[in-house]
Prior knowledge:
Blueprint: H1 3-31, E1 34-37, E2 47-51, H2 58-66, E3 72-77, H3 78-81, H4 86-92, E4 95-98, H5 105-117, E5 120-122, H6 141-149, E6 153-158, E7 168-172, H7 187-204
Parallel strand pairs: 1-7, 2-5, 2-6, 3-4, 3-5
Antiparallel strand pairs: 6-7
Amino acid sequence: MNSEEIEHTRARLNRMYHLLYAIIWPFFNLVRPLRVVGREHIPDGPAVICPNHTTAGDPFYVVFAFGRHYPLRAMAKVQIMRVPVIGWLLSKAGVFGVDRGAADMHAVKTALKYLKWGDKLLMFPEGTRVHEGEHVEAKTGAALFATRAGVPLLPVYIQSKKKWFRRNTVVIGAPYMPAYEGRKPTAEELQAIAHDLMDRVHRLGEGVE
């Protein structure tokens, strides 16, 4: 695609994104109002947005914490994208599925494509919901995308114990470039980046609950 076609595609995705945002936001804000800390850290350019993950509604917390000015492309489990109507609407807004049980190269190429276009990619490094007391090894996908596309990682902490009709906190950390020496990181280096990323995410949550 040439630059004009890319911008046309991005504009089309953003129109649907903003439409869904406008429909869902009033209800969400009523039942789960937000307190956002660190919004000034959001970069204007591409980045991999990396929150912790404790509830099914976490993507909404991030989307609404970032606001309409920063449309996000999101990686979701493929089962969601197969739901009639819902999956179609999400795909038109820049959400794409990933098969977590396989090496999904289509999802990898889609994620890198959006970053190359200058978009922000939302993904959960833990790869699944993590309940209190559980420990899940951080996946390396976010580290892979950031190092391969040359974009920063942006840690985000979402309050784990959500409250109805009371403000729930989302903390947006500072973006940073993962450290590696100008080459493709090894599997061990990617895992170290993933561990460091989740440490940063959890440090953002200290004192929030």
